[in-house]
Amino acid sequence: MGKWIIAIVIMFVVGLQVGIKHGRGLEANEMEPVLEAGIERVEQTRAELAKYRLMLEIVACESSFNRKAVGDGGKAYGLAQFHKPTFYMMAKKAGYQGEWKSSKDQIRLLKWAIDGGYTDEWSCPKG
After folding, report:
1. HEC per residue, 30-94
2. C-alpha torsion 56→45→95→93, nearest 10
3. In the chain, fewer beta carbons within 10 Å around the N or the C end?
4. Euclidean distance between CA atoms 24 and 47, whole angstroms
């Protein structure tokens, strides 16, 4: 809760600075759009950070950040422990040309999968 208050205060100060720069203070009705825009941006940032946190949790759980990890009896590979058929099936859905064993491509496709709600493809983390 404290982070939200800090963000709102920052937006208020920015709004005041804009008004002062233009030679006047902002009226209360002029602050509302500034605050609403600030709150919206904070919410967007929070959602993006939650997505990246989930990505980190999946990679930590699945491969312990080992780019060459092999699991599931040799079927899963890499940071996100994609099975080869799953990787290429998701890549096709995403319209993405990637390489199964590429760490960069696995992370890119993992982000797409999280955005698309495909997190059930991983055994961890849940919840």
Report:
1. HHHHHHHHHHHHHHHHHHHHHHHHHHHHHHHHHHCCCCCCEEHHHCEECCCCEEHHHHHHHHHHH
2. 70
3. C
4. 35
Residue with tokens 């809760």: 1
Residue at 127 is within a domain: no
What mean pLDDT is predicted for residues 117-127? 79
Buried b (16+ CB within 10 A) or exposed e, 13-23: eebeeebeeee
- 126: in domain: no
Residue 40 lies in a domain: yes
Report how far residue 103's alpha carbon sits from residue 127's, in angstroms, rounded to the nearest whole number.
Answer: 25
Look up the pTM and report it. 0.69
